[in-house]
Amino acid sequence: MILEELKKIALECGADDAGVISVYNDKISPDREQILKGFPYAKSLISFVIKVNPNPVRTPTRSIANMEFHEGAHDVDSIERKIARKLVERGYKASMAGAMGFPMETNEWPRKMWYISHKLVAEAAGMGVMGINRNVIHPKFGNFIFLGTVVTDIELQENSLSKALDYSPCFDCKLCVASCPVGAISPDGHFNFSSCYTHNYREFMGGFGTLVEDIIESKSKKEFRTKVEDNELVSWWQSLSGGANYKAAYCMAVCPAGDEIIGEYNDDKKAFKVNYLKPLRDKIEPVYVVKNSDAHQHVSKRFPHKKVRIVHNSLIPDSIATFKHSIGNVFQRGQSKGIDCLYEFNFRGSEKEKIYIEIKDKKIAIINNPSQKPKIRIFVNTKSWFSLLARETNIFMMIITGRLFILGNPKHLLKFGNCFPS
Ligand code: B12
Ligand code: SF4
């Protein structure tokens, strides 16, 4: 089998473009162990894209945009299945390598629960490059693509494998930055994962957990209705019965990159913004944010006409490893302004570990062998720390009951807490 034959099969099955990489390609190293565990025969990964119709994604009418996402997801999953079956019919081993979106490996939550990162495979296979909006931008179709991957035992010769693009189609116009209601995309390329996840994925994964908590914690129907208004409850019903609905994909909607898309932008940039950016910015809609987060500040300042809805953070770690992994995803760099501090955490109890966390220049890092002395040392029972993050207890109760004590100025711990509103 050669690359062209595999590409032909992918296109016959409904893909709009495809490429093939070795499972040993460096760019997919974060996922390799998992792929080989699930598919010990894996030699190659076939990456393919399908085109997304920009028009439904661009409309401020969420139900229409969500139809495009749901139908597109089914298309990708069915194309993965068709390609795999065709290869099996020819005597090879092959399988879908992961859904377009869901199902995912839920027992992995709150860790990475998607089986494969299609974006990494797609970049390596030359399907495009992630733009500032973190969507893969195809040179022709722009970011209006969904991605799929098939794993197989077919081995191509090194020189016939696909190559990554050597340029990015993203040209830094920053329309994606201007479109995002929660400011998840910064002009410097920083992506605030929790801002996007909290709003856009309100009716997915952990967002559902916070709905259940709202039901449990409400003392009356009236109180529940202040937390979840009737129309929001209907939205939950719609998501749970017909597939979860995204609250926005504005960063994708407004992106003018890609040969097939850019013409309209180049012809009249002002009209492009009036037609596609302005309606999304003007839309009056609920925007879900964690209180005192960067997103909360952003929406209040930039979109005062939108309706701020306060919800809880739903990314709660359950082990020290998850805590270390997710800390960057929930860190609110805007709230860390002015902090220059090294924290020493001494976890005790069921799980024991000493870790150093540095917050400096609006960045967070876990430091292995710090050269300076920590400004504050925190001694904490591990389980209680996760209870604190899950809002099951509060810091004063932990201090009173001896589950947390500190050496150093407590103001450092309070400032630390401000960077992780929940
Ligand atoms: C996790 C995920 C998300 C997360 C994180 C997005 C991200 N930037 O990675 C959230 C919920 C925010 C999200 C939102 C959206 N997504 Co999404 N998502 C995925 C998923 C499952 C994996 C992404 C991935 O590979 N990340 C790893 C690396 C490559 O990304 P990264 O930016 O460097 O790292 C981030 C993540 O790892 C995340 N993270 C790290 N640890 C953990 C742990 C947990 C529990 C979670 C949830 C996340 C997380 O934080 C990192 C920092 O941002 C893929 C499907 C798949 N199986 O591949 C679709 C995928 C990336 N999503 C897609 C789409 C379309 C969207 C939305 C437009 C959906 C919508 N309708 O609004 C938005 C766009 C947001 C954006 N600008 O990125 C498409 C992108 C198509 C394209 N052209 O590139 C994909 C490829 C689905 C598909 N098969 O086509 N998504
Ligand atoms: S909207 Fe502009 S800056 Fe954002 S990803 Fe697309 S081309 Fe890049």
Describe the model:
This protein is an alpha+beta fold and 422 residues long. The protein folds into three domains: 3-160, NADH Oxidase; 175-311, no CATH class; 320-418, SCP2 sterol-binding domain (Nonspecific Lipid-transfer Protein, Chain A, 2-Layer Sandwich). The chain has helices at 3-12, 29-38, 54-58, 62-89, 118-124, 175-179, 193-200, 205-217, 221-227, 230-242, 250-253, 259-267, 269-282, 294-302, 320-330, 382-389, 395-400, 410-418, and strands at 17-22, 44-51, 94-96, 129-130, 136-137, 145-152, 286-290, 307-311, 340-348, 353-360, 363-367, 376-381, 404-408. The strands form four sheets. Strands 11-10-9-12-13 form a five-stranded mixed beta sheet. It has a four-stranded antiparallel beta sheet with strand order 1-2-6-3, sandwiched between helices. Strands 4-5 form a two-stranded antiparallel sheet. β9 and β10 (353-360) form a beta hairpin. It is globular and about 70 Å long. The termini are far apart. The model has no long low-confidence stretch (mean pLDDT 96). The site of iron/sulfur cluster (SF4) has 13 residues, from α6.
Uncertain spans: none
The class by helix and strand makeup works out as: alpha+beta
Bound molecules: cobalamin, iron/sulfur cluster
Mean residue pLDDT: 96
Through-space gap between termini: 53 Å
Architecture (CATH level 2) name of the largest domain: 3-Layer(aba) Sandwich
> How many domain modules?
3
Report the radius of gyration as a whole number of Å.
Answer: 23 Å
Overall geometry comes to globular
Task: Work out the helix count.
Answer: 18
CATH-derived topology of the largest domain: NADH Oxidase
- Helix fraction? 40-55%
